[in-house]
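Could you help me review a protein record that somebody else here produced? This is what I was given.
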Amino acid sequence: MGSHRPPVVIPDMKRRRQSTSDKLEAIMGLARQLPLTRQVLADRLADATPGQMEFIGSWMHAEIESRQHSKITRLVRTAGFPADKELDGYDWTPIRFPVDYGRQRLETLDFIDHAEDLVLFGPPGVGKTHLAIALGRRACRNAIPTRFFTAASLVMRLLRAQSDNRLDRELAAIGRAGLLIIDELGYIPIDEEGSRLLFQIATNAYETQSIIYTTNIEFSGWGRIFGDPNMAAAIIDRTVHHGRMIRFEGDSWRKTHALMQ
């Protein structure tokens, strides 16, 4: 027989002033978010003064905020971002959005809610990685587990896991992220085994995770990246089905602001 949890008995509100009753209800609402024995709390609140209720409510708010901050910090650390990039002050002028998807929708992260992919395409130095990191950090602040890899580092990580007989565990760990960022796809050629492993990542993510790719290679050149046109076509097919391409134009920011001219 399954265990039956008795209903929480709330103290009689009629015996208290309305303002006190409101505080009591607010505290009990906070308790639902904490691993407390709420019946014990309810019993103590039955005899609490308004000042005591105020203190308990303030403590619970502080506890919840602390836990949320700790969770965000943990998610950001686990994500593995190479830099602290944010959307504040980001230069959107080089970007050409699809007609049905603009900056405002992108910033809501609704593509993650729908397990959709993004391809940030353009020449080096125009802000693709910056945008990917900033979106990833925003996702972490929204309690969405995120992982960041360059394509080369991801392949090396998977190859090491495979050689150590822990590939399934590594794929499962990556699969728990709501957002996966694969940076610099196409900057370094990928061998046959690496391509197969990346294909497995894309297949596992299909309709369950969002992937952000940053690349300077158009879809027509992805066959060269993966060394297998059929495998590239399969990844492109999945990406296009639930994804959008965001194009970047202009000169490299690093080149424009370089000390060596």
